[in-house]
Every structure is written in C-alpha cells, then in structure tokens.
Design goal:
The chain is of the alpha/beta class. The protein folds into two domains: 144 residues, Rossmann fold (3-Layer(aba) Sandwich), CATH 3.40.50.720; 165 residues, no CATH class. It is built from 17 helices and eleven strands. It has a seven-stranded parallel sheet with strand order 4-3-2-1-5-6-7, sandwiched between helices. A four-stranded mixed sheet has the order 9-8-10-11, covered by helices on one side. Strand 10 and strand 11 form a beta hairpin.
Amino acid sequence: MRTISVLGATGSIGASTLDLIRRAPDDWRVLALTANGNAADLARLAREFGAEIAVVADEASLPALREALAGSGIAAAGGAAALVEAAARGADLTVAAIVGCAGLAPTMAAIECGKTVALANKEALVSAGDVMLAAVARTGATLLPVDSEHNAIFQCLHGNDLADVRWITLTASGGPFRDWTLEQLHTATPAQAIKHPNWDMGAKISVDSATMFNKGLELIEAWHLFPVGLERLRIIVHPQSVIHSMVEYRDGSTLAQLGPSDMRVPIASSLAWPARMGTPCAPLDLAAIGELTFRAPDEVRFPATRLARQAAEAGGAAPAVLNAANEIAVAAFLAGQIGFTQIAVLVERMLERYAPEAPTTLDAVIAVDAQARVRSRELLESL
C-alpha cells in the first residue's frame, strides 16, 4: 500500500484521481486532501477516503470544514501555510493539481520531500521551471507529467535516448473556434469559448484552449521537461484529440500515444508508473472514429503559441509574465471586460513592457507573478 496526497481534490483532476483510487482501495492510503474553499465536498471526500488531514486554502471556509469533519478524527486546517504543511507530509505520491500560482509553494514543498510528484499544475513549470527543476535535481524527487500531452510524450520517450529525438510534437484540438475567421473571433463570447468540443474542463482552461494559450503554456512545460531544445518542439492541430502527442526519432520512426479524451488515462499512467493499471475508460474504436486529421497551427488567428515560444526563447522571467498576464486577460474576458482577441493583445503588450530580472528563488517567482498581475490590470484600462 502506497500513501498519496491530492492537492486540489475537488477539481477535475482531483476528482478523476480519486475515482481511480476508489476503484483500488487496497493499493492506497490517503494522507492529505486539499481544496480552495469547497468545505462540504472536501469533508465528504476526506471521510470517504479516511484522509489524515483536510485543508482549505480559504481560511474563511475552515469553520465549515471543522464542523463537517466533527467526530471523524480527521484533522482540519486552513490557509496557505497549511497547504504547504499538507504537501510536506511526504506521501509516496503527491498529485499537484492546485490551479494557478497558489499551487507553486505546495508543489515545491512536495518536491522537497524527495518523493514522487504527479504534476498537473501548469504554472509550476511555466512560471518557476528553472527553480523547481533545480529542486528536483537536488532532492532526487521524481516528477511525472499528468497533462495528457506531456504524459503522452513521457510514454513515447520511455526506454529511448533524448539524443535520438528528431521532433517532439504536441497535438492541439484547436478548441471551439478552430474554423472561425479572424473577424468572427472578434465577436466570440465567453459562453462560446468555454464549450470545448472534446474535453470537459473548467472555464479558464477552456478559454486557454480556445485561444491556444493552453498549447503555448504546454510548449514551455515540454521545453523544461524534455530538454531537446525549442527548435525540436512543434505543435500540430489534431481536431479529434485521439493522438495526444508524438515523438519522431532520427531513424524516421514516430511513436504516438493514442487514447480517449479522458484525463483518467494519463492520471492512471502516473499513479501506476512504471507499471500499468486498469481504468473504466472505454477502449478506442478507431473504425467508429473513421479518420484522424491534422493541420498546421495558424499563428495569425491564434498568436498565443508564437508568444509562448518567444517567452521561452527570452527565458528568465518572461514565461512567468506571460502566464500572469494571460490569467488576468482571461478573467477580464470571462467578466465581459475585453474581447476574445484582446487576450493575446494584452499578453503581447505585457511581454514588451515588463522584463524583470530572472527569478532564482520561489519567492522571487511569486514576486514577479504578483507585479505582472498588477501591471496587467493597469494595462486593461487601455483596452
């Protein structure tokens, strides 16, 4: 039996993770479960899985959590420091699925334990990749990618040498607007943007998929995880989302990982690594799918991938600035304050106007992120 902590237990990744654990209860003992402020659901899950501790990031939700856990023997805590303490309990496997920069410190705390971290928090590598990978190298921790694209690459690279890699190709669905003209994109609404054609995701990540910023962030993640150089990383639009990524080797062989559009597949890969485990996902029916199609990304209509590559090339604080500016822009779009195409405009202007020194500590990364958000909100006034 292995111990596990799930940071972000009430989100989509957390729910999928716990669904798999629920199906193999003899394999896991749950140490810590965390959530932002959903005390009722967190308490229910903590009771179901017999967690040692449940933590809410929002301290205002702590009284409700304590009341819901009364008599259970499960500890309850709240606040940012409590999240870090929960992550530092040293579980054999920690699933890091807290959305946004709120997940940086807990993810680093889990890495510092030197155990295995299944990473589903994009900001960890986009904003703090150099800092976190240095901690991985120092502690001997194992970092497993949970994102479907990076997990696919990880599987395709298994047993092979990075020196033999010619290309790593991340596939992108293209989102709900992949066939829209630029003129149509100017009029896109939040309700349209969050209706992803293939995946069931939250509003923010759905908008990121629609703008292609999701793929841009994944490009930066892949640059950190698989050090073959930016020039060997490319993106291709694959509307069916059946092939999750591909690796081409110098002998001409291309290995691709295929699977259903269900996050339980890459999560199961991380939970069982280096072995395999069963999932309830329906097997692929390629005959029913009929055809797999591909197209080059259009960086005129969707400049996000170009901006992400430029940020990675600039290095230092640029990826953190890009990520922070995108989060502010997406929130403004969802609130009806700016148009869809202005998301990329704001991010590009921020990259042009704010170039702080490269952060060398997690605190420095968080400071850059905070300042980038302040400046992005100020820049919103001009849009």
